[in-house]
Design goal:
The chain is mainly alpha-helical. The protein has a domain at 12-135. The protein is 53% helix and 0% strand. α2 runs antiparallel to α3 (52-68) and α4 (72-91) packs antiparallel against α6 (110-125). The longest helix has 25 residues, at 13-37. The radius of gyration is 20 Å and the shape is globular. The termini are far apart. The relative contact order is 0.13. InterPro entries: DoxX, DoxX-like_oxidoreductase. It is found in: Cell membrane.
Length: 183
């Protein structure tokens, strides 16, 4: 009856992923809102100013989508890409721009790197159980036992409880919802 700490926490992976996604999305949206509206702190950037105003648009819209969990993987992938561009363009410009230190603690790029890799993780792991995507999946494609759509392969830490047997669960493709059932 001995369980490991890892096994105990495994049942919380999807809710904790959701909490991480919500907090990261809200923080990202606040960065965008500060650029566009000057809220909660700072002065708004003039409309159309390249690249900061446009970055604010991406941060506000992607941050809200990520926080709500709607089109999460796409929004997180775009947000991760924006942060990668911001790091290499503004914080440590190896190809263009003034010389800056390689170390994120010196070049001010710590937050940018954390957002980049955090959103990359969300893009790979998905939104978690507490998301609009999870609710949409349940309505659109039908949900089987354990909260997973039938005929879908689910593995890893984002897999719902009950799928930790090591055997993959088959998933249909994007167009499987529109195919007629085979008799």
């Amino acid at each position: 009856m001995a369980t490991t700490f890892d096994a105990r926490l495994a049942s919380y992976s999807s809710p904790l992923l959701s909490v991480f996604r919500i907090i990261a999305g809200l923080l990202f949206a606040l960065h965008g809102s500060a650029k566009i509206f000057g809220w909660p702190v700072g002065e708004p950037i003039p409309v159309g100013t390249w690249p900061f105003w446009w970055a604010g648009i991406i941060e506000l819209s992607a941050g809200l989508l990520i926080a709500v969990g709607l089109f999460t993987r796409v929004a997180a992938f775009i947000a991760s890409g924006e942060m990668a561009v911001a790091y290499f363009w503004k914080h440590w410009p190896p190809l263009d721009g003034p010389a800056a230190s390689f170390w994120p603690m010196q070049n001010g790029g710590e937050v940018v790197l954390l957002f980049c890799f955090g959103f990359l993780a969300i893009a790979g792991l998905g939104a978690g159980a507490w998301s609009a995507d999870a609710r949409r999946r349940g309505r659109m494609g039908g949900v089987g036992a354990g909260g997973v759509a039938p005929n879908r392969v689910v593995t890893g830490t984002a897999a719902p409880a009950g799928y930790a047997t090591g055997q993959p669960v088959r998933r249909g493709g994007l167009l499987s919802r529109f195919r007629r059932p085979r008799s």
